[in-house]
Every structure is written in structure tokens, then in C-alpha cells.
Amino acid sequence: MPKRVDHDQRRRHIAGALLRIAEQRGLQHASMREVAAAAEVSVRLVQYYFHTKDELLLASLGYLAEELGARVARRIAALGSPPTPRDVVSGTLTAILPTDPESVRLTRTYAAFYSLVLAEPDLTRHGAPHPDLLERLLANQLRAAQQAGAAHAELDPGLTAAGLLALTNGLGSSVLGGQRDAEAALRILTYHLDRLFAPSAGHTPP
User: How far apart are CA 138 and CA 93, in angstroms?
Assistant: First the structure.
């Protein structure tokens, strides 16, 4: 009998090759041929699963977001059950910071996509829901903390969530660029979280 093909596995395998290229060399000059070589498959097979380079890029970005989501979930699960809203916010943001080999790889790969968008702004027309999902998650936790009296009532959850993500991404870039180490980035993030949440609220340290 012919071997049954797992198409999702093949798509992920090819996308994984592109993500490795993104982390190691960036994406400005990555071609379908280079991805095929890295995945050890034919160019025709790459084009069978991804008709255009943009399609491959966006699918790969989706798989990258899945990896980050799984890392965030593991970090939050390790905080105990049920985690407080501050635990969820802190656990999410510290999972994003490049503090270990896995998060360094994820941050470097995301940086490659950001750099590509600067060079090819038309990619933004497709949209990417992943940052919006993270912002909503953080905003919901901030609202829950406000309702429980654990966060300052005057803060705007949506704007604060967007600011926290921007801060975390900026800190990640500063770590990759050698401006500061991971420990210093964590101290800065914690400093800002301490000023958002009510002083009396207990929380699990990151």
C-alpha cells in the first residue's frame, strides 16, 4: 500500500525550515529554493503546499505564534492553579522576553519578520491577528485585576496592555542587541508591573 501522507506535518516541516532561516540569516533574501533546500524537499513540493512566498511567510508566522502560545501556556501553568491576573500578565510577558535559548530563538525569528515588513510593507495588508490576541488576553486580565481590587482603577486596560507588549518587545530587542542582559530586562518589566497593580495585591514572582 502507498504510504499515507500527513499534509499538515509536511506543511509544518517546510514552514519550520523557513523559520530556521529567519532566525539564522533573516528573511530579506530567502527564496522558495532556499527553503526547499533547508527542508530537503523539492521546490515543486514547497510550491504545492504554499503557492506564493507570501503564503509561506504568513503560514510560518502562524506556526511561530503557536510556539509562543505554547510557551506562554506552560509558563502560566507552572504558576499554580488558579493563577492570579497578575500571574497571567507577568507569566505571559516573561515568556516573551529572551531569557533562555528557546525564547531567544523565538525573539530572533520574530525580529526577522518585523525587519521583512519594514522592507516589504505590502505584507501588512494580509494582517496578523496574533499580537491583537495577546493584547486582548492582557487587557482582560487587567480588567479582572481591577474588579478584584488588585490593579489601579484608573488605568485603561486596552492601552495598558498595548504598552506592556510594546515595552516587552523593546526590552527583547535591547537584550538581543547587547544593551542589557535578561536579568536587567526582567527587573525593568517587574518595576513597571509593580506600578500597575495595587501594592497590597499578592502575586507570584516571575
Answer: 9
